[in-house]
Structure formats: C-alpha cells, structure tokens
Amino acid sequence: MVPRPALLPGAPSLPRVIEPHIRRAEPRDGDAMYRLELASIHSAWREYYDGTQIQAWCQALHPTYRRDAQSVRELLVAEQEGRVVAFGQLHPRRARIEALYAAPGHMRRGLGQSLLRCLERTAWNLGMEALDVTASLCAVPFYRAAGYVEQGPWDFEFGEVRVPALLMKKHRPSPHPLPFRRSPWT
Ligand SMILES: CC(C)(COP(=O)(O)OP(=O)(O)OC[C@H]1O[C@@H](n2cnc3c(N)ncnc32)[C@H](O)[C@@H]1OP(=O)(O)O)[C@@H](O)C(=O)NCCC(=O)NCCS
C-alpha cells in the first residue's frame, strides 16, 4: 500500500527535526532539488489534483531551473545526513516565496516552517513590507499556520490544463514594543 502523505487535513504532526541544517543552495544541488520537487509533488498533490494536472505541472519544470535560479533568488536547502530533504526559494525583487518543497517522508516535521522562517527573515531584513506566495491547494493550511492570508484564486494554465492555486500574503510583523519599565530613581 502506498503510504499516505502526512499532509492530509487532520494528519498528525511527526517528530520535529531539531535544528535542521539549513544552508544556501549551490549549483551542485540543482539535480537534487529537481528530483525532490518532482517526488514531493507526486506524493503530496495527488489528493488535491488529478493526474493530468500533476503531469502538466511536472512537464513544465526544467531540470536546470533551480540551479539557474540561484543567481537572482535566495535559495536555501535543508540537509539531513548529507542529503537535501527540503528547499525554499525567495524572489527578493518580487517579494515572493516562489517555491517550498519537502521530500516525501520528510513532511510535517517542521522543515518547511524552518526554511520559511529563514526566507522571511531575509525578506524583512531587506526591508520588504509584505511577502506573497501562490500556494498549491495542499500547502494552504501550512501557509495559513505561518500567518499568510488568502487573497483569492490564482490559476496556472498549461494549454488546456488548469491548476488552481491560491494567492496568499503576509505582512511584515511589527516589532514588539519595548516593555514599559519604571525608572528605579523615581
Ligand atoms: C507545504 C510544505 C512545504 C510544508 O512543509 P512541511 O515541512 O511539511 O511543514 P511543517 O512540518 O513545517 O508544518 C508547519 C506547520 O504548518 C501546519 N501544517 C503543515 N501542513 C499541514 C496540513 N496538511 N494540514 C494542516 N496544517 C498543516 C501545521 O500547523 C504545522 O505544524 P504542526 O505539524 O506542529 O501542526 C510541504 O508539505 C510540501 O513539500 N508540500 C508539497 C509541495 C508543495 O505543494 N509546496 C508548496 C508550493 S507553494
């Protein structure tokens, strides 16, 4: 029997990966990211999209796309025992999270959240006021839990094939006000 992804609504969380090893992607990670992306989609999307939609999306992915993206995007990978098990991509000029994928068997362990936090930190440090993402239907609960709010439907079209997604947005959190302290001299 094919194991059910830990992504389904109501699926329990799995033990967290404590302090995952996150680093900037390098050109040598391009193949691993491409394979991970395909595997992640085939595993997680099948409850939300049909075979034609998944096939259309995967065919549009180019094996060298993630490798080439590194020059203008912030691309981070999470590694476990020397293997890339998740990655995330921020486009700084568009203020957009462009990709976030965890490998099958590594979902719901906090890797997506850790990568997203790192990408958001970069975005807020660069002075962005908000970030958006076109979330696949299976990733909506994840982004909602991270504070992103639905803005409306956003469909991708591959010829006749439509792949529905949702545009979501998160505003830069305001810094916590300093706690009021009474002066010890008054
Ligand atoms: C979306 C994705 C990147 C999330 O990464 P992840 O490592 O599985 O998610 P995390 O473990 O960090 O989840 C953090 C929190 O998000 C929420 N969450 C994540 N998945 C959820 C789900 N299916 N249902 C409800 N809440 C969910 C939970 O609050 C979770 O915390 P918890 O496990 O303590 O309850 C990953 O599931 C994935 O690769 N999906 C397939 C590819 C994809 O569609 N990517 C998005 C493209 S826009």
TrEMBL record:
CDD domains to which the protein is assigned, alphabetical: NAT_SF
UniProt domain N-acetyltransferase: residue ranges: 20-173
Pfam families referenced in this protein's UniProt entry, alphabetically: Acetyltransf_10
GO molecular function, one term: acyltransferase activity, transferring groups other than amino-acyl groups
Record bears the keyword Nucleotide-binding: no
Sorted UniProt keywords: Acyltransferase, Transferase
Protein name: GNAT family N-acetyltransferase
Superkingdom of this protein's organism: Bacteria
